[in-house]
Amino acid sequence: MNRVRLLLGKDLRILWRSPALLAVLVAYPVAIAVLVGLVAGYASAKPRVALVDQDGLPRVVELGGQRFDIARTIRRVSDDVALVRLSADEASKQLRAGKIVASVTVPSGFLADLRGMVRSPRLELRTTAGGLSSRVTQQVQALVYSLNRQLQGAFIAANLEYVELIRHGGTGAFLGRRFEILGLDGMRRLLEDLPPGPRLDRLRTFARTASLALDQTDEALQATANPIELDEVREPGRSWVLSAQVQSYALALTITFLALMLAAGATAAERDENAIGRLAHGLTTLGQLVWAKVALAAAVAFALGLGITLSFGAVIELGQVEGGEPWARLPVVLAGVVLAGASLGAIGVLLGALARDARTASLVALGVVLPIVFLGLVPREVVPAAGWISDAFPFVHAVRFFGFALYESSPWEALLGEAAWLAGLGGISGIAARVGARRLLV
Amino acid sequence: MACGVARRFGSKTALQPIDLELREGETTALVGPNGAGKSTLIGLLAGALEPSAGRVQRRAGTRIGWAPQRPAHYGRLSARQNLEFFARLQAVPRPTDVAARLLEEFELGADEEGSSSNLSVGMRQRLNLAIAALSDPQVLLLDEPAAALDPRQRRSLWARAGRLTGSGGAVLFATQALEEVERFADCVVILLDGSLGFSGSLAEYEHEHADRLFA
User: For residue A9, which residues of chain B lie inside 8 Å, CB to CB?
Assistant: First the structure.
């Protein structure tokens, strides 16, 4: 164990005396983590959608006696998508070029159909086969849903005015024609003046029952239009950038890059420096050398993991963001960081031993680490095979471990499972690395 | 002692089975053209390489110093750090003091804290030799040790080797310089294409084989 400690100390000293290498090793994975974050963030960014207005929608439209501010409605929709007004030709051109992900066309006659209330006006949505098309379709469906809700409100209000006319009588208008209506109240007043009799009683009962029934129309219409209401309540939880997923991925991704590349480079460097022969000349065993490199990966992962976790915790603390366990579970997270670093370090040692020189080892490590990380980012539900392959590498287990450690209220069973995965994969890689390390002596 | 020691690298045979014994108080020169297997044989004797066949026997507790042809130390560490690291790894008592002494003896003190990769070729070779000398070895295995040294350092090297054999130690050195063989060797081993071409005393080598073997 003393020799492993000496080798580890030597490697840490070499790393300390290589500030440029150290900076690259820290900055590179952090930069990759940020880039992946940005790409992932694009999933929640606003897609650009064209609005082709062939009907010349006015700024304000009056429907069912209510005024609709079209500009305000569009602004409201722009919370979800970046809506840009384009001509039909330009929209078509930009859609083909991929500059917009969809176009929504308001055909001529749309407003007339809307005002006529005889047939449903139609909007035309055109999308491409790109990855965002389903999302845009959902957002445009949400837009139509939102418009329909506002229109329903207007139509219900208009219909209720007619109901009020039926109840109380008065002057109304329909399709531009004005009319007078007696109403149930007027009918009851007329019936008061007529001589009593069974037929008159039946008419009075009808008028009273109809009036009571129509009194419930308002709520009934609202309930029919919206059988299920969705109440949205915003909690003061973490924003996307400080979410559990981002923190877990940032930690795992940084450690994966760092541990794998560092262990691979440090292992191959023993041969590059011609020191492997001197070490093998009775000073250390290959097993001790593998342990030392695994320990190096774990130690540096610990330092970087601690930095990232403390930074996240500080930002969360300063921002008074609620949710998660940034401090109480810090030791658990760091234990996971060490385990993941060691597990990935073992793979790195294997790669370094197989590559045999530091430059090739770094390239091979980079070539291996990218698919491991990107496979881990593919949702298992989308590509099951990617999930199975990912399970064979420590990255996804590290992501899950950090996720459980930071945010689950009772994570212990799940943590043990992921720790077992990390230890098992590390053990297998370590044995393979010990066998592969013989190549360093050739 | 090497008994039928051979080494292959993949399908290539670098060294045919060879028997060799290093005797106390003797300096043995290992000579042969490039690619003859000299470095492979020294690496096998040092234990840096595993033999494909045969075995290397060492007397229990024998301290062996090895200086490979290409200096073996860490370029990012200073000369002092290299010496201290290898001293600790060899469990040398008072490693810091020993490192300081060797820095002085091998005249490495001028830039002892700078990265050893920035040292001159000659200084790197001196560091290589200093590491070999860390454990106060009884057997020194030197692979072309004088190639990058200036005349003064060469004299110092051979004086050190002479002191070792004078105190009952053994030295094996590989070289291409025949004058070094003639001046410092007691015995000569000649390798040709991975095979033993000659093994005997310097007198036998000079009178019987030298011209023929290097013709």
Answer: 85
- Residue A64 above 80 pLDDT? no
**Cα(A193)–Cα(A280) distance, integer angstroms:** 121
In a domain, A412, yes or no: yes
Residue of higher predicted confidence among A412 and A70: A412
Cβ separation A277–B46 shorter than 8 A:
yes
Is there a contact between B49 and A441 if contact means CB atoms under 8 Å apart?
Answer: yes
pLDDT grade for A231, boundaries at 50, 70 and 90: low
Q: What is the pLDDT of residue A282?
A: 79
In angstroms, the CA A46 to CA A84 distance is 12
Closest Cβ–Cβ partner in A10, A276, A280 for B47: A280
pLDDT band of residue A401 (cuts 50, 70, 90) is: very high
Q: How far is B168 from chain A, CA to nearest CA, in Å?
A: 22
Question: Is residue A171 domain-resident?
Answer: no
pLDDT > 70: percent of chain B: 95
- pLDDT reading at B74 higher than 70: yes
Give the pLDDT confidence score for residue A41 in this predicted structure: 56
How many structural domains are present in chain A? 2
Report residue A136 as tokens. 């845009």
* Partner-chain contact B77 A10, CB within 8 Å: yes
| Averaged pLDDT of chain A | 82
DSSP A151: H
Q: What is the pLDDT of residues A172-183, one digit of tens each?
A: 877 667 888 888
Residue bearing the bigger pLDDT, A363 or B113: A363
pTM: 0.71
Point out the domain boundary residue: A124, A147, A170: A147
Least confident of A15-24, A109-118, A359-368: A109-118
End-to-end Cα spacing for chain A: 26
A123 and A256 assigned to the same domain: no
In A341-380, the residues whose Cβ lies within 8 Å of chain B are none
- Which residue of B10, B71, B88 is in closest CB contact with A274? B71
Q: Which domain holds residue A76?
A: 48-147
Q: How far is B129 from chain A (nearest CA, A)?
A: 12
- Together in a domain, A141 and A11: no
Single-letter amino acid, residue A259: A
Contact A281 B47 (CB under 8 A): yes
> Do B50 and A440 meet the contact criterion of CB atoms below 8 Å apart?
no
Query: By percentage, how much of chain A surpasses pLDDT 70?
Result: 84
Is the Cβ pair A13, B81 closer than 8 Å?
yes
Given A92, A116, A147, which residue is the final one in a domain?
A147
Cβ distance of A282 and B88 shorter than 8 Å: no
Least Cα separation, residue B210 to chain A (angstroms): 32
ipTM: 0.86
For chains A and B, CB pairs below 8 A equal: 64
Q: Which of B46, B10, B7 is nearest to B137 (CA)?
A: B46
Please name each of the domains of chain B with its CATH number.
1-62+138-215 (3.40.50.300), 74-137 (no CATH)
CB atoms near residue B206 (< 10 Å): 13
CA R_g for chain B: 17
Is residue A172, in this structure, part of any structural domain at all?
Answer: no
**Which of B131, B86, B73 shows the shortest CA–CA distance to B105?**
B131
Residues B52 and B37 sit within 8 Å (Cβ to Cβ): no
